[in-house]
Amino acid sequence: MTSQILVEQISALYSGSNIVELGVVQSAINQKEAVEQLVVAIENVEGDAQADPKHHGGLDRVLHHFPREHYGQYRRWDLISGFKDAPAMGENISTVGLDEHQVNIGDIIQIGEVKLQVTQPRSPCFKLNLQFDHQEFALAMQQSGRCGWFYRVLEPGTIYASDTITLLERCSEISISEAMHIYFLPEFDAAQYQRLADCPGLAASWVGSLQRRIVNNAVEDWQMRLYGVQQA
Questions:
Q1: CA nearest 188: which of 208, 214, 215, 223?
Q2: Euclidean distance between the first and the last CA atom of the chain, given in angstroms as a whole number
Q3: Peptide bond just before 186 cis, omega within 30 deg
Q4: What are the tens digits of pLDDT across the range 117-167?
Q5: What's the Cα-to-Cα distance from 153 to each of 43, 51, 113, 158, rounded to whole Å?
Q6: Counting Cβ atoms within 10 Å, is residue 187 exposed (0-12), middle (13-18) or buried (19+)?
Q7: Are the C-beta atoms of residues 69 and 129 closer than 8 Å to each other?
Q8: Which among 35, 42, 83, 210 could bridge 193 via Cys, Cβ 3.0 to 4.6 Å?
Q9: Are strands 25-27 and 165-169 parallel, antiparallel or unpaired?
Q10: Among 193, 184, 223, 216, which Cα is nearest to 100's?
């Protein structure tokens, strides 16, 4: 396919390196600030940090992109307590007019001089419940698919807030929205899991999880991820 401009100009860029307490856990989600540029390496973004490298960051999740307009929808659903806005999701890239239906797993994206590949949707966890003071926030993100997505870095460089976002190559037919739907199906479906696992560019952690489900003929328990440790 020929190159396609997805966004004429980024809405905002964010980064932050401080890690602080968020309820009973540590998180960097509240420490990001607007910046004019992101210096992007293969493994990380300069001045950006994650408190939990096991579940955040890594080569498949160097940059988090979250649609700006989703905040309005979550407010309309009464899921956000108080006026929290970008970058309250911990995102690095904020845009308007681009969502999970328009971006596919494996997409090769050019932003300024940086070349990226879409790897996975954001998998919501209980830290979002703490962040937005709503016990069902993570579940609502899981069910709605308004989650944003992650990139791995193919060619490093600097991203500027004035940069255009261009789709260079489409590598699969599964959108971020459909990937969320498949991954979080309420009932086991080996055929759909394999279809998603076969997508070029899908994050290694998601491939491994899908393959384990197929081998075990069962889906892992989501309660800890969605709600954390529940007090008796």
A1: 214
A2: 55
A3: no
A4: 999 999 999 999 999 999 999 999 999 999 999 999 999 999 999 999 999
A5: 7, 20, 11, 12
A6: exposed
A7: no
A8: 210
A9: unpaired
A10: 184
Predicted model pTM: 0.94
C-beta atoms surrounding 118 within 10 Å: 28
Structure tokens at 126: 């209980």
At which residue do the structure tokens 């008796």 appear? 232
Structure token pair of residue 136: 């069902």
Nearest to 51 by CA among 116, 109, 125: 125
Task: Give the H/E segment covering residue 188.
Answer: none
Q: Residue 174's pLDDT is what? A: 98
Q: Any idea which residue has 């989600």 for tokens?
A: 29
Which strand (E) or helix (H) includes residue 144?
helix 137-144
What number is the average pLDDT over the span 81-94? 92
Q: Is the dihedral of CA 211, 217, 220, 222 positive or negative?
A: positive
Which residues lie across from 65 on neighbouring strands? 93, 149
The letter for the amino acid at 142 is Q
Residues 6 or more apart from 208 whose CB is under 8 A from it? none
**Sign of the CA dihedral with 212 first, then 213, 214, and 215 last:** positive
Alpha helices (H) in 184-217, listed in sequence order: 190-197, 204-216
Here the tokens at position 145 are 């698919």
